[in-house]
Specification:
Layout: H1 11-24, H2 30-40, E1 42-44, E2 65-67, E3 75-79, E4 85-88, E5 111-113, E6 118-121, E7 135-137, E8 142-143, E9 159-161, E10 172-173, E11 176-177
Parallel strand pairs: 3-5, 4-6, 5-7, 6-8, 7-9
Antiparallel strand pairs: 1-4, 2-3, 10-11
The chain binds 2-acetamido-2-deoxy-beta-D-glucopyranose (4 copies).
One 2-acetamido-2-deoxy-beta-D-glucopyranose binds near residues 53 and 55.
């Protein structure tokens, strides 16, 4: 590849080239940072999440993380089931719904599976931000209730399994009960 002589470039082009260079080496995207925050509150005795590397630019190669295959991939599925995880669910979970409005994407987190771990504490209110979520599997943990009212915001939720937990109270979910 030909070497670019920066001194010969007009200033706007120079700025563009330099910012592209920086953009390429920019760190982990925001979804990755939310996931690292989720991990920071989780005990992972068996190191299942050891390849969640902050040096990656996206979390798409991380264990349990599935991304769309777009040019700008987003996390659509998070499967942390049966990993002996403990700790509590971070409010950062809600960040996995944050998408640049201008892209008007439909795809974002649609499936979350944390079943069969030792997760404790309540569901964070921010789970109600995951507006594309259609599958939420959380059975066999130590999640405490009551369920946050924001769960009612999940209009696309089709499957919700949270048995074998310490959830108290009942909750109306659109037209069905849990
Ligand atoms: C991330 O990059 C830094 C600097 O290159 C390096 O010291 C560190 O070991 C890397 N971390 C991982 C988990 O690869
Ligand atoms: C979970 O923990 C048990 C012991 O408590 C261990 O035998 C088992 O291999 C672990 N499973 C996973 C998937 O980490
Ligand atoms: C839930 O917590 C209780 C008491 O703290 C413990 O005995 C039980 O093993 C835990 N269950 C799970 C699935 O972690
Ligand atoms: C995320 O959820 C919190 C708590 O329910 C709420 O206050 C906040 O407005 C939500 N953010 C977005 C972007 O929906």
């Amino acid at each position: 590849m030909a070497r670019i002589s920066y001194r010969l470039l007009p200033l706007p082009i120079f700025v563009l080239v330099v910012s592209l260079l920086f953009y390429q080496s920019a760190g982990l995207n925001s979804e990755g940072q939310y996931l690292l925050d989720i991990k920071s509150r989780i005990g992972d005795t068996y190191n299942h999440l050891s390849n969640w590397n902050p040096n990656d630019s996206t979390p798409c190669g991380w264990k349990g993380v599935d991304c769309t295959s777009d040019y700008n991939p987003v996390v659509w599925c998070l499967d942390l089931s049966s990993m002996n995880l403990s700790g509590s669910l971070s409010p950062s979970l809600g960040g996995l719904a944050k998408l640049p409005v201008e892209l008007a994407r439909l795809s974002c987190l649609t499936a979350l599976n944390i079943a069969n771990n030792r997760i404790s504490g309540p569901f964070p209110d921010q789970i109600g931000n995951l507006s594309s979520l259609s599958l939420l599997i959380a059975y066999s943990n130590n999640i405490t209730g009551p369920l946050p009212a924001t769960l009612g915001n999940l209009k696309r939720l089709r499957t919700f399994r949270a048995g074998q937990n310490l959830i108290s109270g009942s909750f109306t979910f659109g037209d069905w009960w849990m």
